[in-house]
Input
Amino acid sequence: MTKYICYITCLLIALMAMPLKASDVSDAIHAMRAGNFAEAYCVLKPYAESGDAEAQYNIGWMYLNGYGLMMNDSKALDWWQRASDQGYTDASFSIAMLYNLGEGQVEKDMDKAIDYYLMVVEDGHEDANMIIRSMLARGDESIRERKQDIIRTYGYLLGPLFDVKVERANLRRKPSLESQIITVLNQGEAMVELSAKGEWMQVGLLKSGEVAWIYRSLLQPHVLTNKSF
Output
């Protein structure tokens, strides 16, 4: 019955015979948010099929949430992938979340999730940035084997950057003067802040990718230069 109603609605919209305009996508999104799912789907579908990334992204959300359609996260993934292939950042982030959660037909796959998170980190996506930083900071098992490569490659994008301002500084396993010294850093060594605890900062070294703790007073804000990394 739902499919029949949707078909009739689409047919009536088509018979109204007004050419589709770019503003139709925005109108359809507003209709979807207002709960007018059949109208939204009928307007978005031809745009999505013709390659409009925003329409593809929103069709994906309709499938994921069952907005006038049967819930189907694999179809959501298909539409989001089409939008992601065109560089649509929110679609790539949605794919990352889908693989991260793995609660439906799309199975959990953290390697793929991390790949998509990193893809949008490069686009400046703040939520993806926060997720990757949190995973690195807590030593998440799914990212542990990749952490050094991720910090070396994406560290300069993940958070505030700092340099060692003193001649030599100890990098410790935990935020305590009694904790084991992992290595001794030289002046100018660059790092990204991952988390903080009091006067201690958990950092990722941009050169080696190592994660550890350092006393905040030993650092200064990093000044970007052509030789920074």
In short: The first helix runs from residue 2 to 15. Strands lie at 161-164, 168-172, 181-186, 190-197, 200-205, 211-215, 219-221.
